Amino acid sequence: MNRSPSLDSRFLNRELSWIEFNFRVMEQAEDATLPPLERLKFAAITATNADEFFMVRVGGLKPLQRAGVAHPDPAGMTPAEQLAAVSERMHELVARQHACLRKDIEPLLRKGGIRRLRLDELNAAQMRHVESQFHNFLFPVLSPVAVSLEDEFPLLAGLGLALHVRLAPAAAGAGPRHALVAVPKNVPRFLALPGESGFAYVLLEEVIRAQVGHLFPGVEVLDCAAFRITRNADMSVREDLAGDLLDQMREVLTERRESECVRLEIEKRASKESQAFLRAALQVDDADVYAVPGPLDLGAFFRLAGLPGTDALKAGNWSPQAVPEAPPTEPVFDTLKRGSLLLHHPYESYDPVLRLVQEAADDPNTLAIKQVLYRVSDNSPVVAALMRAAERGVHVTALVELKARFDEARNIDWADALARAGAQVIYGVKGYKTHAKICVVVRREPGGVVRYVHYGTGNYNEKSARIYSDISFMTCEEDYGADASVFFNTITGYSQLSKFRRVEAAPLGIRPRLRELIEAEAERCREGEPSGIDAKMNSLADPELIEALYEASRAGVKIRLNVRGICCLRPGVKGLSENIEVRSIVDRHLEHARIFRFHNGGDPKLFISSADWMPRNLDRRIELMVPVEGRENADKLDWILKTCLADTAQSWRLRSDGSYERRRPDARHPLLRAQQAFQLRAESRAEAAGRQAPVFEPQRPAEPRKSS
User: Fold this and answer.
1) CATH class of the structural domain 506-687
2) 609-659: per-residue pLDDT in tens?
3) I want to staple 77 with a disulfide (CB 3.0 to 4.6 A). Which of 81, 170, 309, 534 is the partner?
4) Cα–Cα distance, 504 to 511 (Å, whole number)
């Protein structure tokens, strides 16, 4: 029996809260005011989000269910109850995904020249093209595999497409035979068709299905259906065991390829016999079978959003803007000597962050570069700069987090490359994931050694920096530099954490500091003084901090939270959380910045952080929380946070029962789209800087040399 968390519970269930976030993303796909490729992008995001959710969260609950664990989560739900509720909601989401694709998005794309065609819609020339592609390119690659329930089932790649083929019996009275055909991953999923304006295509699995008889000559094909499996990826290394972490991570990657199936997606057109066979062969519960009324792997459709010549079907271009305080013609070091810099990505360019590392790599005065790498791009300019620096003798220390989920293989390769270049490479910290975003450049200058530091909320990935909304804080102030040195000395050696001057680090300092700040606001309110807490984060699930917020609410503190995804706090409950409001923004950029503001008696304390308010971030990860001081930067950060909280165009309000309602403008709260406001501000500042009259400086002859 499915059971949602009781309204008597003080907490909302984490897994169901995440699913509600994905439904909010789905509402963007259903928004008729958006252009069709933008809507398709959001539908694809819901699919890739769901893939990761099943691999990690459902993958983690399954073993608990099998073991009969009945211990409830903070919301009062056992693992079995959570899985039942998850299955019910995820089936609803799949139905909405494909209804939206079929009824809304694809008809609009067809009008715009992007057409997915069935094989019976092809003309003779197009059919010849498809047949030619199959025989010349696909047939030599495909390898059908006979399968049965009596023999060991072949190892199928997680999230890979395959076809199940049901064949006629070999003899009278025998049962049907079964075979599998894996769809190649290195062949484009969307096969372009000739003779059409725009972009017309058929799906690769449709081509194989139509020609599948060629793989089984002389045998009748009874049924052929595409399917896709999701494997459990919730695995970790035993760092208490002896052995090299690099080797252990390679073993984890191997284990994932062979782990249990936690979800079976299969075309709805598949016969009952085919479904039953795959369920039995893969040992999948009925609740984990998703009969999909459309193409599998909607995440792949994200590629269509980048088709050239389709601007009319896309959202308008928001390009990152130059930052007037950091002109590209000026070395970043000179910029930071004038004052600290706070950047808001992707509205403001990520270029100053890249240039900090790149200029340092080539600067003869650079003594050392130290950086934490959690997720970087495939062809990372940051890693390239670190390798270049190491090769020319700069002391480079790179902490490459090998345990960054789904980036393990890439990070292993980067770690190897950096080590070969001569960098000192650290594979993370034993027992913890290092999630902090920090880079420090140590430079020799006439006045002595100066440390230039970047603290951020996002990864050192120039590609995601154009998609994710994040904060960068860059400075050469002594206290921040000293704290950076303490941080790296602690995580690269054996020393215990020394006292920081300004920043706080998890797992030791962030939780108690946040408790202290929350309790201070509660005490001020009890004493009749002004108080308030505003915070922005991706997830809020930590019971201890939620209880502290509840206590502050009972004291009368007004608390405004902007939580993008998971929120286990139940707002608006009388006597518990009636002074707490929770909003969530879902817009074209992924909200990723963590910003915390405490009223502090009228002298606000503002922080950025790499950490969400979750047990894993506060207790099991290396994280940083950094105060942003100085009037100009603090005011800018304050404005960013307040603008997010004031959004009435793309924000949702969390109800006490865990559901969300779309926020609408009214007389008291006019229409405001926060992300658009950020983009317009960045554009206006860049434009104003561009209009400034140039300052002309004459080139003067050099002083004549004195003869010796």
Assistant:
1) alpha beta
2) 999 999 999 999 999 999 999 999 999 999 999 999 999 999 999 999 999
3) 81
4) 9
The dihedral over CA atoms of 651, 655, 657, 660, expressed in degrees to the nearest 10, equals -20
- For 143, counting Cβ atoms within 10 Å of its Cβ (0-12 exposed, 13-18 middle, 19+ buried), the class is exposed
Give the whole-angstrom CA distance, residue 212 versus residue 192.
20
Contacts of 614 (CB under 8 A, 6+ apart): 539, 540, 541, 542, 566
Exposure of 21 by Cβ count < 10 A (0-12 exposed, 13-18 middle, 19+ buried)? Answer: buried
What's the average model confidence in pLDDT over 160-185? 91
Whether the Cβ atoms of residue 100 and residue 92 lie closer than 8 Å to each other:
no
Q: Spell out the residues 6+ positions from residue 369 whose beta carbon is closer than 8 angstroms to its own.
A: 357, 360, 361, 386, 389, 394, 395, 396, 397, 439, 440, 441, 442
Q: Smallest Cα–Cα separation from 310: which of 31, 587, 35?
A: 35
Could you tell me which residue, 698 or 453, shows the higher pLDDT? 453
Q: How far is Cα 139 from Cα 184, in angstroms, rounded to an integer?
A: 11
* Sign of the C-alpha dihedral computed for residues 385, 386, 390 and 391 taken in this order: negative
What is the token pair recorded at 564?
Answer: 């993008």
pTM of the model: 0.92
Residues whose CB falls within 8 Å of the CB of residue 377, separated by 6 or more in sequence, listed in order: 461, 462, 463, 464
Q: What is the mean pLDDT of the chain?
A: 92
Report helix, strand or coil for 685: helix
The answer, yes or no, to whether residue 327 has pLDDT greater than 70, is yes
Distances (CA, A) of 377 to 9, 302, 417, 528: 42, 18, 14, 51
Which residue numbers are catalytic? 435
pLDDT at 492: 83
- Contact yes or no for 237/269 (Cβ under 8 A): no
Residue type, 131: E
The separation between CA 120 and the C-alpha centre of its own chain, rounded to angstroms, equals 39
Number of alpha carbons in the 13 Å side-chain half-sphere of residue 57: 19
Q: Of 504, 468, 498, whose CA–CA distance to 609 is shortest? A: 504
d(CA 203, CA 119): 9
Residues shown for the chain? 708
Is the pLDDT at 249 greater than 60? The verdict is no
Common-topology check for domains 332-501 and 506-687: yes
The span from the CA of 450 to the CA of 126, in Å, is 66
Instruction: Indicate the domain borders of the chain.
Output: 1-112, 116-299, 332-501, 506-687
DSSP helix/strand/coil, 456: strand
Q: What is the pLDDT of residues 490-505, one digit of tens each?
A: 888 755 666 899 999 9
- Cα–Cα distance, 587 to 25 (Å, whole number): 8
Homologous superfamily, domain 332-501: Endonuclease Chain A (3.30.870.10)
Spatial neighbors of 37 by CB under 8 A, at least 6 apart, are 109, 114, 304, 305, 307, 310, 313, 314, 315
- Tell me the pLDDT tens digit for each residue of 278-313: 999 999 999 999 999 999 999 999 999 889 899 999
- pLDDT per residue as tens digits for the range 462-475: 999 999 999 999 99
Contact indicator for 197, 128 with CB cutoff of 8 Å: no
Rounded alpha-carbon distances, angstroms, from residue 327 to 324, 686, 689: 6, 10, 10
DSSP string, 103-120: IIIHHHHHHTTEEE--GG
Q: What do you get for the CA distance between the two ends of the chain, in Å?
A: 98
Q: What is the CATH topology of the domain spanning 116-299?
A: polyphosphate kinase like (3.30.1840)
CA–centroid distance for 531 within its chain: 33
Is 172 exposed, middle or buried, given 0-12, 13-18 or 19+ CB atoms closer than 10 A?
A: exposed
pLDDT at residue 6 is higher than 60: no
